[in-house]
Amino acid sequence: MERRNVTRTPQEVLALCREKDVRAVDLRFTDLMGKQHHLTVPASQLNEHAFADGFGFDGSSVRGWQSIDESDMLLVPLPDSAWIDPFTSLSTLVLACAIQDPITREDYARDPRMIAKRAENYLQSTGIADSIRIGPEAEFFIFDDVQFDQRENSGFYHIDSGESWWNRGRGESPNLGHKIRHGLGNMCSPPNDQTGDLRGEMMQTLIDCGIDVECHHHEIGSAGQAEIDIGYGGLLETADNLMTYKYIVKNVAKRHGKSVTFMPKPVMGDSGNGLHVHFSLWKNEDPLFAGKGYAGLSDVGLYAIGGVLKHAPALLAITNPTTNSYKRLVPGFKAPVNLTYSQRNRSAACRIPMVSPSPRAKRIEFRCPDPSCNPYLAFSAILMAAIDGIQNKIHPGDPIDKDLYDLPPEMADRVAQTPRSLEEAMQALEQDCDFLLRGDVFTEDLLLSWIEYKRQHEILPMQMRPHPYEFCLYYDS
């Protein structure tokens, strides 16, 4: 196993290349929308000077980045990020890169990794804590077949999973009948669970690439929904690991003729894919969220919840950044649409897990995010909301230790809800973004570009297109 996120010198990376007979170096970075890109160079191009001089690329071809008249940018390899890609036929070393302006050599303000780095630095500058630990639970679907298209005169999608209940009557040779009933996939065992070996290979590949894994299991969705939980780490470290996690999971699936999606709601009427974010703050190795209050929380922990809940509508513009995200955030399906908090309660937006009495295990789980987000931006925004809550002592009010989907109407009306659409979330972000701008973690320019891109390239195109179900409803009007 190649260790990740450890201090390495360029000389040590070059020695690793010689040890592993590396023939190619893959330089990777993530755009503003959370999509990973790469540039591959021969191993001979990687020398000590390259770690300082970087490699040129066209920044105008990356979504939300440079204009064409200022297109030249630099990829500067980060030696601490080195690992060996298990999927390439040619022995390939992977290096994450910082993005810099080639003239000023300043770090690029729209580089998501830089935003995450600034968020961690800002936390330290406040004196509240010296570190944040994040543990993500990313869910995904494994499909056997995926087809979709959208044209001026047609639009459709078709997805399939051999283990799903809808294939009980399919003419397989033979059909053994071990299909998963609707909504009963959570931690089911073989032969109903038909993706256990595949998840096991995903888990081992993650471990081989230096990522700690806690567990894997089948999720609630009957059509191959899965979850693999990876270990806790710092904000930037965990965001890096989550990008690698998505890369590995998708490519292990592809190797077996399967397709993985982290789309929040690909199956109608079934559970969607969440990204439950567990986080805690630490100072001098002491857990700051542990105390003697509700659910074993400290005042700091309660105020962090208060900040997250207060800013949640704006947060969701970053943590739930697609139009499809809001098809997951509907009542039922364990979707956290209620902006309140509770111990053990998975129907609340913020949950305090009670699985261990250890103060070191005391943490907050923010259940609203989904894995379509850019983790560098999402984790940074959550941290900034928590910091604001702590600095301003924002109390979250009383917890609700009841099934929030079954509250009496007079009580349910008093519980704030998540935005119902991406446009609502964007409006909330426009009205409530000051907490993100502190410490220059996010910039006003970046947020304006984010909102404009989402409206012009996602919200408006969706509004312009007829939906197939509208034909069912209205064609014979």
TrEMBL record:
Its EC number is 6.3.1.2. Its cofactor is Mg(2+). Residues 112-477 form the GS catalytic domain. Residues 20-104 form the GS beta-grasp domain. Keywords: ATP-binding, Ligase, Magnesium, Metal-binding, Nucleotide-binding, Phosphoprotein. GO terms for cellular component: cytoplasm; membrane. GO terms for molecular function: ATP binding; glutamine synthetase activity; metal ion binding. ATP binds at residues 214, 278-280, 346. Mg(2+) 2 binds at residues 219, 227. It comes from the Bacteria. Pfam families: Gln-synt_C (PF00120), Gln-synt_N (PF03951). GO terms for biological process: glutamine biosynthetic process; nitrogen utilization. The modification O-AMP-tyrosine is found at residue 405. Binds 2 Mg(2+) ions per subunit. L-glutamate binds at residues 328, 346, 367. Mg(2+) 1 binds at residues 137, 139, 276, 365. Oligomer of 12 subunits arranged in the form of two hexagons. Belongs to the glutamine synthetase family. This is Glutamine synthetase. It comes from Aureliella helgolandensis. The gene is glnA.
